[in-house]
Automatic annotation (TrEMBL):
The lineage of its organism: Bacteria, Pseudomonadati, Pseudomonadota, Alphaproteobacteria, Rhodobacterales. Residues 6-163 form the Thioredoxin domain. This is Peroxiredoxin. SUPFAM superfamilies: Thioredoxin-like. It holds the Pfam family AhpC-TSA. PROSITE patterns: THIOREDOXIN_2. It comes from Loktanella salsilacus. GO terms for molecular function: antioxidant activity; oxidoreductase activity. InterPro entries: AhpC/TSA, Thioredoxin-like_sf, Thioredoxin_domain. It comes from the Bacteria.
Length: 172
């Protein structure tokens, strides 16, 4: 099955994700007061994801001054809780991203190479800037773990987009 390119400017399909180690949830695609940046990571098995998420955590206050930040993977609750405990991340770490949700977001989906990697299909990395009205403003997706956005550049660009109410680009 192929995955469709994310439709910037369109309403994001409403999705709710459980937060590891908490009773709360994160919902995307529904109207809210603030912008949201959703980062999708491959899961506990990915060391490159850990490096990226450690970098995100180090600059998290700069991000949360501007928008809400959530991180999600297809991992189980136990794996997400183990990552949260091991790394002490401060962002909302969510779990249980389904294959249907991966496809709705336009993510690349991979099968594990072995049980040592993981046992279920998982999403490759993605970053999604979602306006308060629930529409997709900006997307960055990769088909593998090595390509990630520069967090400083991305935040700077998002501040500019938000401050200047920039229109969605790349719609054709």
């Amino acid at each position: 099955m192929t995955t469709a390119k994310p439709n910037v400017g369109a309403q994001v399909e409403q999705m709710t994700f459980a937060i590891a180690g908490q009773d709360g949830t994160v919902t995307i695609g529904a109207p809210k007061d603030r912008w949201t940046m959703l980062f999708v990571y491959r899961g506990r098995h990915c060391p490159r994801c850990k490096r990226f998420l450690n970098k995100l955590n180090a600059v998290l206050p700069q991000w949360t001054d501007v928008m809400d930040v959530a991180v999600v993977s297809a991992d189980t609750q136990d794996k997400a809780i183990a990552d949260k405990a091991e790394f002490g991340w401060d962002f909302d770490l969510c779990y249980g991203l389904s294959v249907d949700q991966m496809r709705a977001l336009g993510l690349y989906v991979s099968e594990p190479l072995s049980d040592a990697e993981t046992t279920e299909m998982f999403a490759e990395p993605g970053a999604f800037a979602i306006r308060p009205n629930g529409t997709l403003m900006l997307v960055d997706i990769s088909n593998g773990p090595a390509a990630r956005p520069d967090l400083e550049e991305l935040l700077d660009g998002m501040k500019f987009n938000i401050t200047n109410d920039r229109p969605v680009r790349g719609t054709a």
